[in-house]
Specification:
Blueprint lengths: L7 E3 L2 E3 L6 E5 L6 E6 L3 H18 L4 H17 L1 H12 L3 H22 L9 E4 L2 E9 L2 E5 L5 H14 L3 E5 L6 H10 L8 E3 L4 H9 L5 E5 L2 H14 L2 E5 L5 E4 L5 H13 L11 E5 L3 H12 L20 H12 L6 E4 L15 E4 L6 H4 L6 E7 L2 H9 L3 E2 L1 E5 L3 H10 L4 E4 L14 E2 L2 E2 L4 H6 L2 E9 L3
Parallel strand pairs: 7-8, 7-10, 8-9, 10-11, 12-13, 12-18, 13-16, 15-16, 18-19
Antiparallel strand pairs: 1-2, 3-4, 5-6, 6-22, 11-21, 14-15, 17-20
């Protein structure tokens, strides 16, 4: 059977690799090979950066209105090609088509349009005379060529989070998608290309060593990654060696703190979705629930009942909540946590691979009885597994919530406004939701603390990440 061999997207066109190494792309839907991807050579990466560098000379001088128009046209074209994007991404991710259409395509379009508006809102401190005989002003400029690495859990949306603010600010990009989900990113670049200078958007394919070539290259003034802590540390080290700016959005282990005065029906409805959405393959997933002792049994009973009503399914299943795990490695990773559970832990529902499908499917799972030091509490599982612990009081809840190396997102469930404000202040996480978990909006920043990285996505703060500040001082005579 003939298998399609993919090409890089460089300088506005598909380009054959200069190398000979290819690897199989396997659909998590059925475990079958659907294409082959090149593993980028140094020559491939050099060519992409050369094109991006040339395009930057043009794009950096474009006016904000020109950038806005290009991004708005890009968003409109994305909307027109939504069906093709849904089909493409469902094959490589195993995600549900209705989820991709509603949660990724629509959100991506909205976020591109947000950054189109941000392009016209360059801000700096007011012009003034801070020294006699001189006027000072601030220029907010594009930072330069940006090297980027995107993950596989939301390949389209995460690529948009990378390229949209970068282009809006006047930069050009070399982006490497995950080695398991390159197709949707290639299609995204092809759709975007007509609206930007050739070389403004370049997509390099490959394995981890190709990503290393992208982030360690001497050309980019900034490197950005959404990925694991391990990968983020490598990117930070590479960036430091070139004194390039680093933007890191890494792992998460979100605490979901439920107090005895919370609306348990509302809480369990929301948490059962936020914990298992996208098979739990989300850095902000509601995967680590902390429940006050007085309501623990009632909460677990409700969560188990609602989890048993949830199922995974094939991409066309409109009744399913989530689809497949992304790849065989991830399936093994998730199963490994269950295989290593300590004796005091108890799986109260789920816990098994779904064998009625040929792909990488896993039951929604709840684990109780874990202790704070256990690996399933401390480490990111990135699968359809929710753990439930207990706490005594506010101090105990806060200690347990903050006692992980991650600091991306969190939520607190209570009807006590003062308590919610105290926890919003004291939770050591970049996002705190009250009586909700996982909603995102383009106008608000997304990013974490501690080993969840640094730098913000979305919002005006995310836009400013891709700019630099220049002070201009002019002498004058009265």
């Amino acid at each position: 059977m003939h298998v399609k061999q993919l090409k890089h997207f460089i300088n506005g066109e598909f380009v054959q690799t200069t190398g000979v190494e290819f690897f199989d792309l396997i659909s998590p839907v059925n475990g079958q090979i659907y294409a082959q991807s090149p593993n980028a050579t140094q020559q491939d990466v050099d060519y992409a950066y050369g094109c991006a560098k040339a395009a930057f000379k043009v794009w950096r001088r474009s006016t904000p209105s020109i950038r806005q128009k290009a991004l708005l046209d890009f968003a409109e074209a994305l909307e027109k090609n939504a069906d093709q994007l849904v089909d493409t991404q469902s094959v490589e991710t195993g995600q549900l088509k209705h989820m991709i259409a509603a949660e990724e395509i629509k959100t991506s379009i909205d976020h591109i349009r947000f950054f189109a508006g941000a392009a016209r809102c360059l801000e700096g401190k007011a012009t003034a005379e801070y020294l006699e005989g001189f006027t000072s002003s601030i220029r907010r400029e594009p930072i330069g060529v940006v090297g980027q690495v995107a993950p596989w859990n939301y390949p389209l949306l995460m690529a948009v989070w990378k390229i949209a603010p970068a282009l809006a600010a006047g930069n050009t990009v070399v982006l490497k998608p995950s080695d398991t989900t390159p197709n949707s990113t290639l299609l995204l670049a092809e759709i975007a290309a007509p609206f930007f200078p050739k070389g403004a958007i370049n997509v390099i394919l490959g394995l981890a060593d190709a990503g290393s070539k992208v982030v360690s290259h001497p050309v980019p003034a900034m490197v950005s990654i959404t990925g694991s802590v391990r990968a983020g540390l490598q990117v930070a080290a590479s960036a430091a060696s070139n004194l390039a700016k680093a933007h890191l959005e890494l792992g998460g282990k979100a605490p979901v703190v439920v107090f005895e005065d919370a609306d348990l029906e509302k809480a369990t409805d929301a948490i059962s979705i936020a914990g298992f959405f996208n098979a739990g393959q989300d850095c902000t997933a509601a995967a680590r629930v902390l429940v006050q002792e007085s309501i623990y049994e009632e909460f677990v009973e409700k969560m188990v009942a609602k989890t048993k009503q949830i199922h995974c399914g094939l991409p066309d299943d409109e009744t399913a909540l989530f689809g497949a795990l992304n790849n065989q490695r991830q399936l093994v990773h998730v199963k490994g946590f269950l295989d290593r559970l300590p004796a005091h832990a108890k799986i109260v529902t789920g816990g098994k691979q779904v064998t009625q499908y040929d792909g990488y499917y896993f039951e929604p799972t709840i684990i109780c009885g874990l202790e704070q030091h256990d690996e399933a509490i401390q480490n990111e599982i990135f699968g359809p597994i929710v753990t439930i612990q207990t706490f005594k009081d506010e101090a105990d809840a806060l200690d347990k919530a903050n006692d992980v190396e991650f600091g991306l997102a969190s939520s607190v469930w209570t009807n006590d406004h003062s308590r919610s404000m105290r926890f919003s202040r004291d939770l050591d996480f970049g996002t705190v939701w009250t009586n909700a978990h996982i909603p995102l909006t383009a106008e608000m920043p997304h990013g974490g603390f501690k080993k969840s990285g640094y730098g913000k996505d979305l919002s005006s703060y995310g836009f400013e990440e891709y700019t630099r500040i220049k002070h201009v001082m002019s002498a004058y005579e009265d």
